[in-house]
Write a structure and sequence with these properties.
Elements lengths: L2 H52 L2 H8 L4 H32 L4 H29 L3 H24 L4 H26 L9 H34 L4 H37 L4 H26 L1 H9 L7 H7 L3 H16 L3 H26 L1 H29 L6
Helix pairs in contact: 1-3, 1-4, 1-5, 1-7, 1-8, 2-4, 2-7, 3-4, 4-5, 4-6, 5-6, 7-13, 8-12, 9-12, 10-11, 12-14, 13-14
């Protein structure tokens, strides 16, 4: 990928992510803590369904196919039916689970809208990966602008105008459907149509390559977001979950600094690893030291005035949750180190080992959160998260340098 194309990709990713974050801030400020608490829980559930239906296909397309258009198109048609069926079945099952769980109409409306919205965004991301895998960066940027940036800004406008919350999310889900249809149409305009499905050998090869990516991404998500579901399951006040969800989103904003840099240079670093370039180890040391230092700086800044930061970013009703941010802040530098090292594992083809670590962290994290929340409530979830983040960061860094030292490819 040329420097120009890489710049276009980073710019489109940056704009779409910032639009999404602006939407989150707008929702929190316009609709208050209680609605944001419901929104946080429902968003976790919806994103879990999307990740399951993704099947690790996005990373598979860009990381394993080497940009061969025919092969990418073939895999697209192989994966598409899986995404569609798992997405429909998963979303229906989750919504019915909440329905028979006697949740209020507000919960059901918000969950339904987010399931539709995030499923459509998942399709846009999938098609975008297919474009990226064959170097068609401008098409990827176009569909993200239409389906993610414009939709997010449109919903943000409705939030600013104080349109009813459920109506706002419903209109956003309809706009996301339109965006997904445009993305699919654009893909078929530039790619030949092939029959869906495949032979046994193709399915076996697809499973062997995608399953570690699926397990890794799904386990990472469950590990990072199970705390919100556990807090809701234990009956923690929805306002407190709203504060907690806001802090989670604040960390997501901070981690964009890692994501933007790594996604801009990951192709170059992968090429360096393929050539066994000895400078690669030095670059990762510098990256870890640099991002660790930035994380410590952010820890200091946030710790000085946590309530003020919460109120400034998310609205006056969130200031009371400053104590959550004050405790969570210790996780910030650890998350910077962990995410940087995980990108390194992707470069050195250590997806399988990285997935095993995350699965372990997920299992330990769920057990720890169930125990900690039952005794200490939200504070227990935060302390548990900091401890698991520390262990995962150290373990991933150790594995990264072990693979850099031996220079051997892991199982992809």
């Amino acid at each position: 990928m040329t420097i120009g194309k890489s710049s276009v990709r980073v710019a489109s990713e940056s704009l779409s992510r910032f639009a999404g974050l602006a939407l989150t801030l707008g929702i929190s400020r316009a609709y208050g803590v209680e609605n944001f608490g419901i929104y946080s829980v429902c968003m976790v559930v919806a994103m879990g369904v999307v990740l399951l239906s993704d099947f690790g296909s996005g990373l598979h397309l860009t990381g394993h196919l080497g940009g061969e258009p025919n092969q990418v198109n073939r895999r697209f048609h192989l994966i598409a039916p899986i995404r569609f069926l798992v997405g429909i079945v998963g979303a229906t099952f989750i919504w019915l689970f909440f329905y028979f769980g006697h949740y209020s109409p507000t919960w059901l409306y918000i969950l339904g809208a987010l399931l539709i919205w995030q499923t459509c965004i998942g399709w846009v991301e999938f098609i975008g990966y297919a474009f990226l895998a064959t170097g068609r960066v401008w098409q990827d940027a176009s569909i993200k602008f239409i389906a993610k940036i414009l939709v997010s800004l449109g919903v943000l406008f409705l939030a600013i105008k104080k349109v009813d919350f459920t109506t706002t999310l419903f209109l956003g889900s309809i706009a996301a459907v339109v965006g997904a249809v445009i993305a699919i149409t654009l893909y078929y305009k530039h790619s030949p149509r092939l029959p869906f499905g495949g032979v046994k050998e193709e399915w076996k090869d697809l499973w062997s390559q995608c399953s570690p990516l699926l397990v890794g991404s799904l386990a990472t998500f469950i590990w990072a977001r199970n705390d919100i579901l556990i807090l809701q399951w234990y009956g923690i006040a929805v306002e407190e979950i709203g504060w907690y969800g806001a802090v989670v989103r604040l960390q997501d904003m901070m981690l964009l600094m890692v994501i933007f840099f790594m996604e801009a240079f990951i192709v170059k670093m992968s090429a360096m690893f393929s050539k066994r370039d000895p400078r690669l180890k030095k670059y990762w040391v510098l990256a870890l030291v640099g991002y660790g230092g930035i994380g410590l700086f952010l820890l200091l800044i946030v710790s000085l005035a946590p309530s003020q930061w919460m109120g400034l970013l998310f609205g006056a009703g969130f200031s009371e949750g400053g104590w959550i941010l004050a405790l969570w802040a210790y996780r910030i530098p650890l998350s910077f180190l962990r995410l940087t090292a995980q990108y390194g594992m992707l470069v050195v083809h250590g997806q399988k080992e990285s997935a095993q670590l995350v699965v372990t962290a997920m299992i330990v994290g769920i057990i720890a959160n169930l125990s900690a929340v039952s005794f200490f409530g939200t504070r227990g979830a935060i302390v548990s998260g900091v401890a698991i983040e520390f262990l995962l960061a150290i373990s991933t860094i150790f594995l990264l340098f072990k693979k850099l030292k031996c220079g051997k490819r892991g199982n992809a």
